[in-house]
């Protein structure tokens, strides 16, 4: 019998997509001994997701590599318009104009209201983001990356998990002893199934579009821009009765990601050059030479959330925990925020600083957000998928003109709904979480396209640009931050001491500013490591240690706002 190699770590991550990589980075920056295994030899080869939302970019900024990500993908001056056509080389129906990466960086400091943010969205294929995340994960001294390895089984104990791992191409098996196991292992999650967790919600939906089997083709068509003759766009949609699909620009130099829904009679056909040529030509409206780089098939019409995100020593995140139809681009971004939420809690638990409720709060907080976000994605998928092209959409003459005009009005309005979503991006809240000092106050309405900043505990801190040109978020510390917006209170030292007593870092940021105080509606706000408002008040509680215990999941008594 071959020898079985033994290894140990504090956290074992299964899955090397954006969720697993982000989790490894967050844990590594906290010095948590982490092993990440992934069956693939490296990062994704096909583009996959295409939009990094502003909240995700804010987290990349917090970690110091937002500018690096913003430089990836399309050239900095490439427009990120969403454009709709009968066919890509035929009539343009509607266009929703959005800024290039350069324009976004130049304008972010002047944005207000719903779009007051440290970062704006960035249109970049996931394959490039994964490469950046992998580089940063590998730079963490406490993180070990093991690609081309798969999990075969695991067993839970009271204080640990034992996992069996083997190389995908043969070799010595490995037993890993970990304190915690995280399944970021995708839609068919082995870990979720082993835990007996069911997915609940909606699947198997059939629509004219975004409901059924989808062909995904990563291709290179260097003559596309010249052959189609339209102004460049980030995303091209074909809208006709024969072939609907979208085409996302990957590098701005001829690489694209083409997705189209397969009809019933097409579902079993192999995605060879002949069939892909047929599909692509139907969407473009004329033959355009192209090279296939990668193909795949996926299923649209899912709106599913796991009935639980784990227990005790084993947790799930990302696609293992929720499945989206990609309308609105929320799957990958929700997965990144899962990792951000879970990482600091796992670090506290691994160090013996967390109460029982802290890890449980991951399930409570993130499952609610997953349900919210998949619901919004379903709404957007219905909006585009159930809007059926008129049989007259490509006909010459007045009737065709009217059909195209009506379609253009609808599609432009839809694009505004789908691609201008500050409410989805910033408005997710953890109300009712056991590790938030919740207030009994009215919440702003949760809306897709409008975000109303509020410092009510449980949500994203209101953002502001400071007089020196820096973002308020740049002043937050790497762990906990007490934001003091009036004259210093001597009790702040007692709060810092209470955090230090349990091994947690608290940074105190003094910014006596009437405008910020009005924005936050209190003199002080306590910001969590994942940049969520945990508590606010005009004076600290008489017993700061009690507040700290509450926020770390040691629930000996209720905490009320000062």
Automatic annotation (TrEMBL):
Domain of life: Bacteria
Limits of the FAD-binding domain: 9-373
Key words, A-Z: FAD, Flavoprotein, Monooxygenase, Oxidoreductase, Plasmid
Keyword Oxidoreductase in record: yes
Classification via InterPro entries: FAD-bd, FAD/NAD-bd_sf, RIFMO-like
Cofactor: FAD
Any one GO molecular-function label of the UniProt entry: oxidoreductase activity, acting on paired donors, with incorporation or reduction of molecular oxygen, NAD(P)H as one donor, and incorporation of one atom of oxygen
Alphabetical list of PANTHER family matching this protein: BINDING MONOOXYGENASE, PUTATIVE (JCVI)-RELATED, TRK SYSTEM POTASSIUM UPTAKE PROTEIN
The name this protein goes by in its record: Monooxygenase, FAD-binding
Source organism per UniProt: Rhizorhabdus wittichii (strain DSM 6014 / CCUG 31198 / JCM 15750 / NBRC 105917 / EY 4224 / RW1)
């Amino acid at each position: 019998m071959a020898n079985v190699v033994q290894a140990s770590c504090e956290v074992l991550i299964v899955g090397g997509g954006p969720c697993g990589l982000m989790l490894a980075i967050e844990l590594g920056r906290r010095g948590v001994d982490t092993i990440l295994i992934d069956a693939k030899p490296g990062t994704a080869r096909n583009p996959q997701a295409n939009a990094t939302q502003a909240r995700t970019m804010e987290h990349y900024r917090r970690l110091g590599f937002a500018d690096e990500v913003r430089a990836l993908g399309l050239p900095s001056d490439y427009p990120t318009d969403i454009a709709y056509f009968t066919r890509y080389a035929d009539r343009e129906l509607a266009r929703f104009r959005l800024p290039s990466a350069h324009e976004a960086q130049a304008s972010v400091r002047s944005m207000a209201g719903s779009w007051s943010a440290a970062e704006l969205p960035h249109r970049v294929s996931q394959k490039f983001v994964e490469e950046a995340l992998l580089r940063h994960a590998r730079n963490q001294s406490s993180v070990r990356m093991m690609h081309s390895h798969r999990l075969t089984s695991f067993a839970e104990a009271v204080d640990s998990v034992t996992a069996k791992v083997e190389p995908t191409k043969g070799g010595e098996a490995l037993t890993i002893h970990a304190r915690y196991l995280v399944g970021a292992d995708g839609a068919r999650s082995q870990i979720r199934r082993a835990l007996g967790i069911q997915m609940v919600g909606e699947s198997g939906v059939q629509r004219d579009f975004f409901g059924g089997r989808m062909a995904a083709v990563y291709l290179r068509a260097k003559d596309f821009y010249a052959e189609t003759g339209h102004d460049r766009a980030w995303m091209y949609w074909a809208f006709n009765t024969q072939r609907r699909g979208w085409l996302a620009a990957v590098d701005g130099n001829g690489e694209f990601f083409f997705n189209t829904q397969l009809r019933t009679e097409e579902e079993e056909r192999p995605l060879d050059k002949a069939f892909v040529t047929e599909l692509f030509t139907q969407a473009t409206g004329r033959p355009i030479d192209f090279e296939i780089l990668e193909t795949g098939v996926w299923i649209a019409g899912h709106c599913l959330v796991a009935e639980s995100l784990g227990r005790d020593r084993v947790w799930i995140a990302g696609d293992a925990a929720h499945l989206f139809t990609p309308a609105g681009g929320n799957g990958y971004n929700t997965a990144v925020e899962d990792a951000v939420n879970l990482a600091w809690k796992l670090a506290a638990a691994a160090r013996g600083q967390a109460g029982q409720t802290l890890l449980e709060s991951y399930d409570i907080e993130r499952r609610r957000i997953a349900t919210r976000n998949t619901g919004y994605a379903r709404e957007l998928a219905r909006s585009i998928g159930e809007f059926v092209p008129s049989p007259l959409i490509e006909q010459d003459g007045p009737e065709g003109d009217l059909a195209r005009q009506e379609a253009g009005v609808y599609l432009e309005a839809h694009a505004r709904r789908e691609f201008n979503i500050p409410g989805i991006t910033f408005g997710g809240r953890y109300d009712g979480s056991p590790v938030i000092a919740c207030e009994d106050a009215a919440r702003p309405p949760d809306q897709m396209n409008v975000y109303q900043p509020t410092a009510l505990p449980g949500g994203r801190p209101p953002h502001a640009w400071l007089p020196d040109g820096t973002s308020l978020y740049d002043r937050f510390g790497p762990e906990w931050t007490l934001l003091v917006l009036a004259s210093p209170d001597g009790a702040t030292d007692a709060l810092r001491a209470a955090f230090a007593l349990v091994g947690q870092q608290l940074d105190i940021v003094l910014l006596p500013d009437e405008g910020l105080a009005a924005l936050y509606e209190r003199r002080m706000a306590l910001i969590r490591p994942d940049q969520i408002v945990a508590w606010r008040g005009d004076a600290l509680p008489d017993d700061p240690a009690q507040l700290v215990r509450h926020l770390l999941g040691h629930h000996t008594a209720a905490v009320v706002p000062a």
